[in-house]
Write a structure and sequence with these properties.
By secondary structure, the chain is of the alpha/beta class. Helices cover 47% and strands 22% of the residues. The chain has ten helices and seven strands. It has helices at 17-24, 28-39, 45-56, 61-68, 75-83, 96-106, 131-140, 155-160, 175-180, 188-200, and strands at 2-6, 88-95, 109-118, 121-127, 144-149, 163-167, 183-185. Strands 4-3-2-1-5-6-7 form a seven-stranded mixed beta sheet, with helices on both faces. α9 (175-180) links the parallel β6 (163-167) and β7.
């Protein structure tokens, strides 16, 4: 059986969600620069994520959740996920308290980073997801893993996956992702077709 693991930001969403939050609340310039440099591998993800959460953590969690619930999605990929829920999941470095409503809209299992919420604000990060651990967990359970991602924090998961696809639907995949990917796909219809191929051909 094949398990499809999707990155969230920039892979399923049509824009990165942290800059989307920052823009909505008027704190976009620094967040946008940090996000771009992180996606391209110029800043370590953990350092950048901690910094970005410290900047955004004072914003109301419930309003962020409502905002992300309406984020633009690549609907073809979402349709694939919803037709094959048991074989799909999401692995995102985003905080579950911010992304929960968006993930509910997509409708599959998701693994997220976790934050401590006090008085409707994120006061700290309690766990940062290591996506490669999710890949390893499914492989140990006997699944063939196809990982679809675009940013530098996907590299180790993609290196470990049985099949790694660099997605360029929202922006250019990072150089690190391209270096470990088995395929790079820039168009949603092509990506959906490729996923269907792996579904029909579990040994290829």
């Amino acid at each position: 059986m094949t398990k499809f693991i999707f990155d969230l930001d920039g892979t399923l969403t049509k824009e990165e969600t942290l800059p989307l939050i920052a823009k909505a609340f008027g704190v976009e310039e620094e967040i946008a620069e940090l996000t771009e440099r992180t996606v391209m591998g110029q800043i370590p993800f953990v350092d950048s994520f901690v910094h970005r959460v410290s900047l955004l953590g004072k914003l109301p969690v419930d309003k962020i959740g409502d905002l992300l619930a309406h984020a633009g999605l690549h609907e073809g990929l979402v349709d694939f996920i919803q037709r094959h829920r048991e074989q799909c999941c999401i692995a995102t470095g985003n905080l579950s308290c911010w992304a929960a409503k968006l993930i509910e809209r997509i409708g599959c299992t998701a693994y997220c980073s976790e934050g401590e919420v006090v008085n409707n604000q994120v006061v700290g990060i309690t766990a940062i997801l290591k996506k490669e651990e999710i890949v390893a967990r499914y492989q140990e359970a006997g699944w063939r893993v196809v990982f679809i991602g675009d940013g530098d924090n996907d590299v180790e998961a993609m290196r470990l996956a049985d099949i790694a696809i660099a997605s360029g639907l929202t922006h250019e995949p990072s150089p690190g992702v391209v270096s470990v990917a088995d395929e790079m796909i820039m168009e949603e219809r092509t990506l959906c077709s490729r996923l269907e191929h792996f579904l029909r051909n579990p040994g290829k």
